[in-house]
Model the fold of this input.
Amino acid sequence: MSIPLGTVASMVHAAAMHRLTGRRRPINLMLALTDRCNIRCGYCAIPDRGAPEMALEEVYKILDEGRAMGCRRLGLWGGEPLVYRRLPEVIGHAKRLGMFITVDTNAHLLPKRFDAVADAHHLNISLDGPREAHDRARGAGSFDQVMAGIEAVRGRLPFWTITVLAAHNLDSVDWMLRTAREIGFLTTFQVLHHNDILGDNEELRPDDADLREALRLILARKKEGWPVVSSKRYLRRLIEWPDYRKTILDDRSKLFPCVAGGLYANVDVSGHLYPCSILIDTMDAPNARDEGLPAAFDKLGKAPCDVCLGGCFSEYNFVFNLDPETSWNWFRMMRGTRAASGRAALGPPQHGQPDLHASPRSAETPAGQ
Ligand SMILES: C[S@@+](CC[C@H](N)C(=O)[O-])C[C@H]1O[C@@H](n2cnc3c(N)ncnc32)[C@H](O)[C@@H]1O
Done:
């Protein structure tokens, strides 16, 4: 099922009211169910965090309170949500509340545990490129497992992929797009974030010029009609970013002010409430389990930054500021992903699109267009 029009309408309404009156409502909640993970990625230290998990009833209570406050979309993540035994119950509860539910996953457990996510609406599957590139970041054997996971979900549940661009895969952009077209899915790209729980990622840090070139290529491919979900505005932001070692910046743009803590928020595995996941463990956080979500959300301060490299957060900020270009892009992608997930986009390039086998890596489009 693609995102219901009613959900879209209530999000647009909340965004407009926030703009006009400053009214804050967590219409989009991200919830980390566990820090545990079945794999170790070179750019992620979340499993080292190992924070205590909430009881199922505590999770339910936060969801109930979130729904009463207007939450319409729940993003489940971790760690790896599929190692969280009660995942089906959490999804079932959120579904009964009428939320649109997405799950971030490395896909390894999907062949065995598809039933655990069967009631979700959409999956975000991590895929970093062909075998060598993917396994370098995510461990030997991971590529085969994620491809088996994609096969298990293909045609059964809408999904798209998340590719983290770094030193291991900058030359994999066209492989990703060809594979997306051949198998039939859409792709998102993001760059490395750095903080205490993700690590400094020195080993995988790409050369800045090479990263910009890969980003220009993705923007060019999107303009050509390849299945790139990431918006042009986000890709342009990435291309123009002054220093990729910094994930957040102050005061860069007043055009699309950050609405983290205003229209969306992140609950960590122990119930701490943060404006977004990039800020976990970097600031004092009220606890939604102990104080209740309404009180915690009241206390939540504004994020101590204005702009970030974060993929989903940048996109949320564009969309929740009602930017027409990005909003239209996301609406089309969310509506289109059902059609793309394992059913369409098969076969050779369509008329008017380049054959990427013949054109392995070239960016024709200058930055900023
Ligand atoms: C933290 S993971 C959790 C879900 C699941 N375990 C997975 O691997 O997809 C969510 C997403 O964040 C991405 N990620 C992890 N560390 C990152 C980093 N340092 N910078 C950017 N993205 C990162 C992962 O690749 C994944 O797509």
About this structure: The CA atoms of residues 317 and 325 lie 13 Å apart.
